[in-house]
Amino acid sequence: MVSVALFYWIAPLPGIYWTYFTRTNESEPLLLVQHLELEFYWLDNRNSIRDYTIYAAMMLPFIFLCATMNNMKILTVSCSVEYCTKFMCLVTEAIRQLDALSSNDDLARELRKVVAMHKRVLVCSRLLDESFRPLFLMQWLLCIIIWSVTLVYFDYSGVHMKSISIIIMFLLVTAEMLSYCILGTRLTGQAEQLERAIYASRWYNLPIKEQRNVQIMLKRAQRRVGIRGYKFVNVNLEEFSRMVNRAYSAYVVLKREISA
User: Fold this and answer.
1) Scanning 12, 24, 137, 234, which has the fewest C-beta atoms within 10 Å of its C-beta?
2) How far is residue 29's CA from residue 26's CA, in Å, rounded to a whole number?
3) Residues facing residue 43 across a β-bridge
4) How do beta strands 228-229 and 233-234 pair?
């Protein structure tokens, strides 16, 4: 993300300076690529090469900082979700290994450990879901808005060199949301595998007391595990396809209103 942001900011500069120093007609207007469509305080960054250079140099550290912060956000979310997924893998494997135990004492001791692990992994998944609900809801809304508005922009202006910033933003937002949906699908799939592993264990051969522990795990495992944007959005690949449909619907409505 940082390298893409730096490339996005620095890439136009060599072409701009080459055009400026090699042009023969001084009256010809200079095309200065505007990364952000705004006036930068007192600088005339649209017409003056000197002001444009100052503007690009002053904004470069902030672009780097924003890209780094976004990297930290993606890494935090990805590592947290993946940690919970791997934790469920460990619990699933521990349940499968219970069948290899022959001693009732060893089985009872290991089963108590598995029940405690299962309880901890469910608490972990619940805290994960509650912590990232606002982030996923905002990301969901941002993706739909950016996708629909970008389609309207390309429909009226076409794809050209000036739209490179729009294309990069579109691809980055899409890649980020897709990665969250893949992680959410992996987490939910692993939770389903955990439930099947509990049910597939030979719990019916256990003593009555241990059967009750397995029943508690089965009851807990029936709760849906995943990441959501509150109660509105389930972050998974199925929801990603629905997001694409919603963005296209919004694009059709926007296009109709603009044409009218």
Assistant:
1) 24
2) 8
3) 40
4) antiparallel
Determine the Cα–Cα distance for residues 238 and 140; give it in Å rounded to an integer.
13
Q: Are 199 and 211 in contact (CB under 8 A)?
A: no
> Could you tell me how far CA 54 lies from the centroid of its own chain?
34
Tell me how far apart the alpha carbons of residues 146 and 250 are, in angstroms, rounded to a whole number.
11
Q: What is the pTM of this model?
A: 0.83
DSSP tag of 232: T
Q: Say if CB 243 and CB 177 are below 8 A apart.
A: yes
| Residue 197 pLDDT greater than 80, yes or no | yes
Sign, CA dihedral 106-111-117-120, equals negative
Question: What is the tens place of the pLDDT at every residue in 122-162?
Answer: 999 999 999 999 999 999 999 999 999 888 888 888 777 66
Rounded Cα distance, 45 and 32, in Å: 8
